[in-house]
């Protein structure tokens, strides 16, 4: 199955344009603490249904970008968020590595 993807440049531009978005790291908290993009929040896949995801991601129309570090968690989280009613959910192209290897110029 193929999933929609967003690239670093798209997220960067949305932040510069002050658009609403959510960048969600679905790895466990310890992995998230080791390295993550500045504006990312952590909602581990293992707790996605236990935490009140609706309190963290308030609007169903907000563009949500999910990532992991190649563990395969992001795809599962994307499906769960879609099942919860979120409409605009995509994977971060390249996962965490795709963010870390971002181009140095706009």
TrEMBL record:
<keyword id="KW-0677">Repeat</keyword>
<dbReference type="Pfam" id="PF00581">
    <property type="entry name" value="Rhodanese"/>
</dbReference>
<protein>
    <recommendedName>
        <fullName>Rhodanese domain-containing protein</fullName>
    </recommendedName>
</protein>
<dbReference type="InterPro" id="IPR051126">
    <property type="entry name" value="Thiosulfate_sulfurtransferase"/>
</dbReference>
<dbReference type="InterPro" id="IPR036873">
    <property type="entry name" value="Rhodanese-like_dom_sf"/>
</dbReference>
<feature type="domain" description="Rhodanese">
    <location>
        <begin position="17"/>
        <end position="101"/>
    </location>
</feature>
<dbReference type="InterPro" id="IPR001763">
    <property type="entry name" value="Rhodanese-like_dom"/>
</dbReference>
